[in-house]
Amino acid sequence: MPDLHVLLEILVIGLSNGMVLALIALGYTMVYGIIELINFAHGDLLMLGCFAALTGVSMAGLPITPGSSHAWITIAALMIIVPAFCAGMNGLVERLVYRPIRGGPKLTALVSAIGVSFIFVNIGLIWGGLPLWAPAWVVNALGIDPAPFGSSASSFKNIPALLPAENLLPSHWGVGIRMAEVVTFGTTIPVLIGMSWLIRRTRLGRAMRATAQDPIAARLMGIDTDRIISHTFLLGGALAGVGAVLLCLRGDALHFQFTGFRAGMDAFTAAVLGGIGSLPGAVIGALIIGLVRSSNDILGESLWTNAIVFAILILLLIFRPGGLLGSTVREKV
């Protein structure tokens, strides 16, 4: 039986990871709830957001002292720029790719989503190989290192630390909480509360729920379903952008292929686990996966973590196909 310190460490790491996953999982479940599309490109959108954050850090000027006013200003700017970038990319894909084929077979939309995923991966590969991370005039004006993260396209990119890595709790407590975890909780919880308020209390949220329930009836009631769907993609992209910034603050190395695939698969699994289409279910599923991963990484063998996560998912879907908070709906033929 692990002692209390170990359990608290599992709880802190698991909830922190789960909070970031929840932001990504909401993008999956919102899009599926509206148009029943599994947007496989969503994880790779997060990866592009991470590269945008990395570029923003380099353009802010290096080196940056962790925890300095320069670092906090950079973080605040990233929290605005990166979500806007990801929202714009998601909205552009919806307008150019998904909207023209919306009335077609679902398989067409699914294959298109996979195609967009590959396009995003290749954009990340090209982005990671650019010799300059900032325009020449910015490099000359601010004295930035032209290639501070390496110019090899396929290499992992190390993110400069913006937050101090010291434990904020007394050492004798036996539990480590860094500033990155504090920022993660302090950012994600208000965002999730704000999303819940938007969906339940605002006119846009009511229109989104009406479109998800019956798009034809919503259209007959005067709701512009195309606009609502576009706003859903914009919101999902913005959430992925916030998640990308939080991932960068944790200091994880970035990769054009691995980052998006790993985060995307975990978030999609969380959405299915909680009940695809259910916003509270996506959050609960993400927290469960975060806790399962941290528990096995600390107490067990990390090589088996992925197998355990998906084994839990399979077992749950056998006994409850709709997920924890989802409902099983029979399709009429």
Structure characterization notes:
This protein is mainly α. It has a single domain, classed as ABC transporter involved in vitamin B12 uptake, BtuC, CATH 1.10.3470. The protein has 12 helices and no strands. It has helices at residues 4-35, 42-59, 69-98, 106-128, 136-142, 179-201, 203-213, 215-220, 225-249, 258-274, 279-299, 305-319. It is globular and about 60 Å long.
Short description:
Helices cover 68% and strands 0% of the residues. It is mostly helical. The protein has one domain: ABC transporter involved in vitamin B12 uptake, BtuC (Orthogonal Bundle), CATH 1.10.3470.
Helix and strand pattern:
HHHHHHHHHHHH
Annotated CATH topology: ABC transporter involved in vitamin B12 uptake, BtuC
Structural class: mainly alpha
Radius of gyration over C-alpha positions, nearest whole angstrom: 20 Å
> Which range best describes the helical content: under 10%, 10-25%, 25-40%, 40-55%, 55-70% or over 70%?
55-70%
Sheet having the most strands: none
Strand tally, please? 0
Q: Which spans of ≥5 residues are poorly predicted at pLDDT below 50?
A: none
The total number of structural domains is 1
Q: What global shape is seen?
A: globular
